[in-house]
């Protein structure tokens, strides 16, 4: 009888090894050993290392706080929830996402793994679109607005991961939301 694989644990291990080592150095042998499964099981279930990384990122990011953010109705509360959820998800999986984005040029087989990033961004864009319809946020592409909202956090995360940048730990979700709303209020009617 085949051994039952703890998929949550397996995918967490895949994402961790991928973030630590990069795609080329992350071996299925190491992943299998750390997850307590056989390497053959990985290939039988996922077919390739790239497909395994894609499945792991999709699973982990969809279950992350940023994958679970929902609209509540108040624009400031909803935007703060997006920012807070992004921060928590970035702490857990930002290294893997950064690794993915930097490794794709060298490993085009990872291109499909980008699809793991889109659902969370699209969910946040739907919340922005709802507030645009209600007149709380200026018109424009909602996905672009999400990028504008999260840009300070993305920049802070890059600086932090580089170890060479300024300390941006004082960047509060409230300050990010206030700055976004200041620049993205709808025009007066």
Question: Can you walk through the features of this model?
Answer:
With 189 residues, the chain is mainly α. It is 69% helix and 0% strand. It has 9 helices and no strands. It has helices at 7-25, 28-35, 39-46, 49-63, 65-68, 75-103, 118-133, 142-162, 173-183. Helix 1 crosses helix 4 (49-63), helix 3 (39-46) packs across helix 4 (49-63) and helix 6 (75-103) packs antiparallel against helix 7 (118-133). The longest helix is centred in the middle third of the chain and has 29 residues, at 75-103. It is elongated. The termini are far apart.
Oligomer: single chain
Average pLDDT, rounded to a whole number, is 91
How would you describe the shape? elongated
Helix content: 55-70%
Number of strands: 0
How much β-strand is present in the residues? under 5%
- Rg from C-alpha positions? 19 Å
Structural class: mainly alpha
Q: Biggest β-sheet, characterized?
A: none
Straight-line distance between termini:
68 Å
Low-confidence stretches: none
String of helices and strands: HHHHHHHHH
What is the helix tally?
9
Please summarize what this structure is.
The protein has 189 residues and is mostly helical.
Task: Summarize this structure as a short list of keywords or feature phrases.
9 helices; single chain; mainly alpha; 189 residues
Write the layout of secondary structure elements.
Elements: H1 7-25, H2 28-35, H3 39-46, H4 49-63, H5 65-68, H6 75-103, H7 118-133, H8 142-162, H9 173-183
Helix pairs in contact: 1-2, 1-4, 1-6, 3-4, 6-7, 6-8, 6-9, 7-8
